[in-house]
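Figure 3 (text version): structure tokens given as input.
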């Protein structure tokens, strides 16, 4: 973790913001605060944070809308976004991932668990940098070679169909990031009108049969991710 990493905390509950800020500051992060979605966007533009923690339910502009707007801005395309909320409804979590959230943390806040999650998310930057080598990804015990469309697990060569390979490459390019079904369809099948969610499920099943069950995880109701153990 770098002391230069900046985190913006956006929540209308001042006690929550103070608690999170205190624990983040102890870890060496530079911490900034805002108390509604509009204020959060303006503060983000000023400080360009590495990670933004957003409450879902806020006055003026909620976290879902604030995230959606920031994801449409080039400067925040790769900024980590984490939702913080007391709501436990599955649709709220799905809505968060659909607008580009990287993770989802429920209240009440448990400082140790929160810090573990935040540190893990920010370490993803290092992981993504380390696995990239031109058109080749090296991750866990896999080497995914885009030039040859081949996958190597240790010394074993695994041959995948083109779409299976592209799906694996997409997920592995951002380990632990949840890709929604809509994002996968757009990235792999673009605007094909004949492709359905079932198509994704079939390709995931075939992919697991060929490379093993321990790499691609299902996030219920949302999509899939490459699980970095």
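Below: residues designed for each position.
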């Amino acid at each position: 973790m770098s002391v230069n990493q900046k985190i913006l905390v956006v929540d209308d509950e001042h006690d929550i913001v103070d608690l999170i800020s205190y624990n983040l500051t102890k870890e060496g992060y530079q911490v900034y605060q805002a108390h509604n979605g509009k204020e959060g966007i303006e503060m983000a533009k000023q400080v360009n944070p590495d990670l933004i923690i957003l409450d879902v339910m806020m006055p003026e502009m909620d976290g879902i809308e604030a995230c959606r707007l920031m994801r449409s801005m080039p400067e925040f395309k790769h900024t980590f976004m984490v939702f913080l909320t007391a709501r436990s409804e599955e649709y709220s979590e799905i809505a968060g991932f659909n607008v580009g959230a990287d993770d989802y943390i429920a209240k009440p806040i448990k400082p140790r668990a929160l810090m573990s999650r935040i540190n893990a998310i920010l370490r993803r930057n290092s992981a993504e940098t380390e696995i990239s080598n031109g058109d080749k990804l090296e991750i866990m015990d896999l080497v995914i070679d885009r030039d040859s469309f081949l996958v190597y697990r240790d010394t074993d060569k695994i041959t995948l169909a083109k779409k299976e390979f592209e799906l694996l490459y997409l997920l592995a390019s951002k380990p632990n990031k949840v890709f929604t079904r809509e994002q996968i369809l757009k990235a792999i099948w673009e605007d094909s009108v004949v492709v359905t969610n079932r198509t994704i499920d079939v390709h995931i099943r075939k992919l697991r049969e060929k490379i093993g069950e321990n790499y691609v995880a299902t996030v219920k109701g949302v999509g899939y991710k490459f699980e970095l153990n």
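The radius of gyration is 19 Å.
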